[in-house]
Each structure stands twice: as structure tokens, then as C-alpha cells.
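Customer escalation, tier 2.

The customer says the design service returned an amino acid string that "doesn't look like it belongs to this structure." They asked us to rerun it and document both sides in this ticket. The original C-alpha cells are below, unchanged.
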């Protein structure tokens, strides 16, 4: 792929990048979990693990090398995941009949994204579920719903956020039957979860509870608003260590607790609003991509826990949205990534509620604006190009019947 060298250059430049010795974020913890597993210390039974079982698919392979090589091996693995994501993104754009300008421009932007992300691009495993989500979307666009739902299920076992896409995917796939896709989703989730549950059910449930029962985290939208209020002298913020076994810094008090509930309600509403909007209009490939992007952004923007690496979740989808909405969306995503990198090395200032909290708030506002922009894009009634592929029914089955086929109220020429 032409943009591969561009991507490899981009992942070398940031601090903590490829071939650089210093580690950031959780690589050390990943190594402890993986080496412990290989040494017989089973996750969830012998060791508390805050990550879902599917994470071990990428946490474990680097541990097969000598222990001091884990950091570099993990970064190489994540770089390979990034390259695979570029391939999947290219397949999606080809399916959308993207012209050369859009195809290469979008892929180049994705390849350069690590420069905006900074150290988190290779130092966390979030690129793994992001790749699986992109693969699930790609499979759905190529009318392979069973494969798409299986990949989505695998993504959910690695990180919980892809579950937000399940209602949207069900809506789209329901036109051709949901039985086999949902079975594929359930079987995939069970196949990954069951072995870990069998050896350490209590620990696995504790890990799940630790994520769900988090308090309002500092970097969330609600948390950032309260930190800003502290800077303005109208609120007295109490910063505490994580309220669960999962590592985080949260805000304590009745108001943060109320905001945690309120933002969680908004999070669910943001996801369901996209589904409701899509259900009222024809669904072609472009609209499915835009709806997937809006779903993921809405889920993240109103979450009660956000970290800079979570923006990786949005990378394989948001830049694929068609112009002009896609251009505005990509710009807002780039802004959010840069803002997150600016305070990455100043977390103590965030914990101490210093001036840095304004950057946190700006990042969260950018995510909310991004969600709004994508919603506007979904409302716009765009003409479906003659070369566009409907995700509702295979063009190959219909092309022999007529030169022009109507799909959900839209017209296209058969191939």
C-alpha cells in the first residue's frame, strides 16, 4: 500500500513511538498480565485484570519473546495492527466507490494520525478492537453480515465499547434476517469469554463491575465541567483515586455522582438517536458509515470515563465519512487528538486542577461538536450515486432483472 511508509514514519516520530525505548501508559501492566499467564498465574482467578478477555489476543504474543523485549514487540504488533486497519479502510472506501482523491487523501490522513495521537498510538492495545470494528463494518458493507457480527462480537470481548454498534448493525442486517448474524455474535463472545469464566468467574465479574461502577472520571465531559467550575471558583472539586479496582482518578460527591448518571443516560440516548434517525431513511453504504461514526462518537463523548487513547476507537471510521461532513468531522477529531496529546505529559496538573483542565474541557467539547456534526450529516438527504452499493441487498442478485434497481427508495444502476 502506498501510504504504508507514511504510516511507519508517523509511528516512529512521537515520544514512545516505534523503536523508542521509553514506555507510556499500560505496556508494563500488559507485560505483567501476559507473562503471568504464561507462568501459570491465570487472569481473573489468580490476578485481577481490568481488561476483557479478548485483550489477551494481543497482550500475550509479545510475551513469548524474552521479557526485556516485550515493550518493543508490543509496539511492533500494534504497528502491524495499524497497517491492517489501513487495508480495511481502503476496502471500505473502494466499496463506497470513492474516487482517487478521496481514497488516497483519507488513507494519508489515517496514516498520519499517530502524529496527532502521540505516545498512545502504539502504547495501548485500543488499536486492536478498533481494527475489529472496522472489519465488522467492512463485512457488513460487503454484505457478509454473519462475518460482520462475528467480528463485532470479537471486538466486544476485547473492549466493551463496540457493543454500542449492535443496535445499528441489527437494524441494517434485519432486512435479510438476523438469526445467523446474532448467532455468530453470541457464539464468538461465548467462545472467548467461557474459558476465562470457567476458571475464574468471580474475578471476571469483578473486572466487569470495576468498569461499569466507575465514578465520574476527571477527563469525562461531566468531570471536565466540574474541574472548570473549580477553576472559576464556583465549585469545590474533590479528586480521589478510583472508586473501583480499575485505575482512575475520579470526582467524589453527590453532584459528580448525579452527573455520572446523567451522562450515562445521555450516552445511551446518543446511541439510540442515531438508530432512530437511520431507521427513518434509506440506508446505503455512505449512511451506514456515517451512522457508525456517529454512534461511536456519541458513546465516547458522553461516557463517564475517557482516556486519550480512546480516540483510537474513532480513527478507522470517522475519517471515512463522505465530504463535506467528513472533512469537518475529521478536523474536529484531529483537534481532539492534539488537545489530548497536549496534556498527556501533564496529568499531575489535571489531578491538581491547574490550568491544564481547560484543555481537557476543550477536548470533550470538541467530541460533543463532532457528534453534532455527524448527526447533521445523517439528516441531510444526499443523492446516492449510481455506483453506490446498497447494504440491504446484493446487487449481484438483482442485476440480471433490470438495468436500474430501486433499493429502499433509492435508485442505482446494476453491475
Amino acid at each position: 500500500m502506498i501510504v504504508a511508509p507514511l504510516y511507519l514514519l508517523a509511528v516512529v516520530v512521537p515520544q514512545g513511538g516505534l523503536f523508542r525505548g521509553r514506555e507510556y501508559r499500560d505496556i508494563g501492566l500488559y507485560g505483567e498480565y501476559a507473562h503471568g499467564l504464561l507462568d501459570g498465574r491465570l487472569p481473573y482467578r489468580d490476578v485481577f485484570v481490568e481488561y476483557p478477555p479478548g485483550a489477551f489476543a494481543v497482550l500475550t504474543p509479545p510475551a513469548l519473546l524474552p521479557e526485556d523485549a516485550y515493550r518493543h514487540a508490543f509496539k511492533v504488533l500494534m504497528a502491524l495492527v495499524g497497517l491492517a486497519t489501513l487495508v480495511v479502510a481502503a476496502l471500505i472506501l473502494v466499496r463506497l466507490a470513492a474516487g482517487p482523491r478521496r481514497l488516497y487523501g483519507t488513507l494519508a490522513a489515517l496514516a498520519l494520525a499517530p502524529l496527532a495521537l502521540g505516545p498512545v498510538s502504539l502504547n495501548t492495545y485500543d488499536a486492536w478492537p478498533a481494527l475489529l470494528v472496522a472489519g465488522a463494518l467492512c463485512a457488513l458493507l460487503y454484505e457478509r453480515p454473519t462475518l460482520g457480527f462475528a467480528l463485532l462480537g470479537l471486538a466486544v470481548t476485547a473492549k466493551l465499547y463496540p457493543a454500542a454498534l449492535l443496535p445499528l448493525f441489527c437494524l441494517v442486517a434485519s432486512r435479510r434476517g438476523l438469526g445467523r448474524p446474532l448467532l455468530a455474535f453470541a457464539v464468538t463472545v461465548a467462545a472467548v469469554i467461557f474459558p476465562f469464566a470457567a476458571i475464574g468467574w468471580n474475578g471476571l465479574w469483578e473486572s466487569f463491575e470495576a468498569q461499569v461502577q466507575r465514578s465520574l472520571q476527571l477527563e469525562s465531559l461531566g468531570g471536565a465541567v466540574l474541574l472548570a467550575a473549580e477553576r472559576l471558583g464556583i465549585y469545590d472539586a474533590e479528586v480521589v483515586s478510583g472508586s473501583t479496582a480499575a485505575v482512575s482518578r475520579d470526582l467524589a460527591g453527590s453532584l459528580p455522582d448525579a452527573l455520572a448518571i446523567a451522562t450515562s443516560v445521555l450516552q445511551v440516548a446518543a446511541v439510540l438517536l442515531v438508530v432512530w434517525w437511520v431507521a427513518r431513511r434509506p440506508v446505503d453504504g455512505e449512511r451506514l458509515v456515517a451512522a457508525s461514526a456517529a454512534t461511536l462518537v456519541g458513546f465516547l463523548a458522553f461516557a463517564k470515563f475517557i482516556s486519550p487513547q480512546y480516540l483510537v476507537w474513532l480513527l478507522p471510521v470517522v475519517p471515512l465519512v463522505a465530504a463535506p461532513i467528513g472533512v469537518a468531522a475529521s478536523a474536529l477529531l484531529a483537534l481532539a487528538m492534539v488537545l489530548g496529546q497536549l496534556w498527556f505529559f501533564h496529568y499531575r496538573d489535571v489531578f491538581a486542577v491547574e490550568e491544564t483542565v481547560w484543555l481537557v474541557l476543550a477536548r470533550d467539547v470538541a467530541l460533543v461538536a463532532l457528534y453534532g456534526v455527524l448527526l447533521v450529516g445523517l439528516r441531510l438527504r444526499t443523492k446516492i450515486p449510481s455506483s453506490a452499493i446498497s447494504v440491504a441487498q446484493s446487487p449481484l442478485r438483482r442485476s440480471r432483472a433490470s438495468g436500474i434497481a430501486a433499493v429502499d427508495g433509492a435508485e442505482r444502476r446494476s453491475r
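Tier 2 assessment: The sequence is consistent with the input. The chain has 17 helices and four strands. Strands lie at 239-241, 249-251, 404-407, 410-413. Sent an explanation to the customer and offered a walkthrough call.
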